[in-house]
Write the structure tokens for this entry.
Amino acid sequence: MSVIHSAGWNGPALRRQTVLALGFAALSTLGYVLVLSPYTTQSLWFPPAGITFGYLVAVGWKGAPVALLARVAGGLLAASGDYTSAPAVVLLADVATTLIYTAAAEVLRRRVGSRVDASFTALATFLVSGVVVAPAGAALVGALARNAIGGAGSARSWATAVVGDATAVVTLAPAFVLLAATVATGRSLSLRVPRRRRLEMVAQSCVIVLTPALIVWADGVQAVELVLLPLALVPLGALVVQRDLTRAALALAGCAVLLGAAAQLSFGSSEPLFRLQVLMFAGGVATCFTGVALFREDRDRRSAEIDSTRWRALAEVAPAVVARVDADGHWTFDGASALLDTGAIDVIHHAEAVPALVQAVAAGVPATVQWTAGDEGGRRFLTHVTPLPGGEQLAVTTETTALHSAELTIAWERSHDRETDLPNRELLVATADQVAATGAASIVVVDLDRAVRRAVLLDAEPARVVLALADRVRRVLDTDDLSDGRAMVARVGDDQFGVLVPEGVTAARMLGERVVEALRQPVPVPGGRIALAAWGGVASVDTLRGARDCLDRAAAALEVESDHGHGHVSVLDALTVSTSTERARLIGDVVDAVGKGELEVVFQPDVELADGRLTGVEALVRWRRREGFTAATDLFVRLAEEAGAVQAVDSWVMEQSLAAMGRWRAAYPDGRADSLELGLNVSAMSLTEDLPERLVDACLRHGVPPENVRLEVTETALVDDSNAPAVLRRIRQRGVRIALDDFGTGYATLSRLHRLPVDVLKLDRSFLTPITEEVASQALVSLVLGLAGPLRVEVLVEGVENRAQRDLLVELGCKRAQGYLFARPAPASTIDALLASGGMLIPDAGATVLA
């Protein structure tokens, strides 16, 4: 639940702030009516202090003027004589007191950020800053003011003022904050902890109230005190009766007002009032502690439900075995899992002998271990160890043999032609990059002149014809090169072969001529013979441009040969580049784009799926040419890589994006932009040795912590034989997170993630298109989410375009996403306006963004 922001007061937000300010002023004035001026009378209960602190926590430092006006108005109403006799002193004291409470509220807001954080750390900050420091400082100001206007002051009067303010803060401020947040968001903090468990925790907390009662009543007690005592326990009882924390906080505030007013009317400033004040303070503290404990348990239960869902998703594709490990390291089989795997006992015997699992159990910390059984089958398993109360640990072991086989099958299908099992374009490109890294390499693209169609006309099986032609090409190539994997014949189209040879372009062209000659020989088929024409194009593999670019250039050369006549092999050189004039001109323009100011950075928001809260932005570059032509990011990056300018472009985008991020952080000192994360896309060519230092230096210059930056790279940047993984690890050591972009479209697998320097998986949008209709797609996304947790990586889903996808992702346990459902890429000014309005992106509401 979000704390109300203190900036961007316009439209609905302005109305909420106005209503909140008026409500605060009314409640504060009522509080002054209930008690006399703190400067003239020793009061052990001062409600305006608690109401003021709650208001300042809710709205931030911009609410200080309203708090000051309410304090002055209440003082004039309750004790106008003080302002008449010494107006300067009293007004100065009002200002000082308001500043003290404002500072304490800001400390708490900065600690919890822009959300209501029901954690023990936040509670400790609340107790220290709001219940101890602020009341002590305000009481000191009050004592000085009393002395200045001729009143009597003592240590006892100062202490009683501290107790009064502290009691008001601990009992009234939580109710004001939770109520304000509920009004702003339309949702309250509701607990799903069973009533029996709530009753147990409340019973334990009653000791916090009854213990001081027994101490303060040791010397005697009056009957009225016993009558009023239950009021200090009612708020705790409210936590048992209903699940809403906001209502429980209101019950605490109501009981505090009733108890304080009744006690002061009955006893005045006396010893019984002090005793009841202590009990009311203890009741408030006990209620706060119990509420936080219940909230934490509720959150743990929700997390456990999500984890359970993820493990169930994993269990759908592989059987699971559950075991408990005691403090001595002995594994005990959970018989309930016998229904899933009759060999569960054998699995546990293997697991308890795995050294990595023995170490994880001994360490007593959550761990995930992949291991292989030492039997003939080589079965693969994944064991997730979770510590339990009492020193025990839960070990859930899942067989991943089928999953591993499925990954191998998927990898084969992605890298081979389905009809012929020949290597496909992707495998050809990957292999060519590897060969080029150690020496010369070229690709020859050969066209078979509609061989498939001719085979169909003669009732021949096209796949057999293609395989026979591929065998001819292999006979032309060097046998050693083929066996070593340095030469390859791939099917890159229905009627096209891609031939990789470890030669320069001249030798590759000569070899291509031999390949074309071999393919022009008729192919015998049952219905006769197929006579084919063939021609080709060749290009050398440039290690900077990569094999994919080489394949494109070879295909372009093939088109040139097709225009000039069949039967030969062309090279895309200065004599044939006339067909690529436009592309060449664009590449030249890219080099000058930065200097001409034609580049623009836009930001794609990513959000918390549960509530639409802005959690980060991804920086994207747009090329807006003077002719009005806008190039998409992927096209512009490819052109920049060809031109050798991609490093300069990446550096420019990094500077512009970090500068915008620094401006947002400086513009909102209330902390709303502090948790914002900036995603920076970098090309594999930009992962140079000096990048870690340049990136951290830019972060420091623009005032952006490295922890708020994630570097987004594609899978090609993480190949094992490149220097990129080492560079990325150095970047991670400096606090920057690494995101694997477009996960699921390349060769990276879940089984390799634990070896990669990756913190975030950006699940490619291709998974989202069929997810609402295909069970298989849902299971796959569920599996990724389920394994990402144990592997300690965060999942951010790309391409969420409709509410059905969003709802299903939430159900599967996904937390963050980006897509047109929330916002399109937008300029920095739009993100600034979004932050000013509260940083909430309501699905389908449609912010004003750049298409």
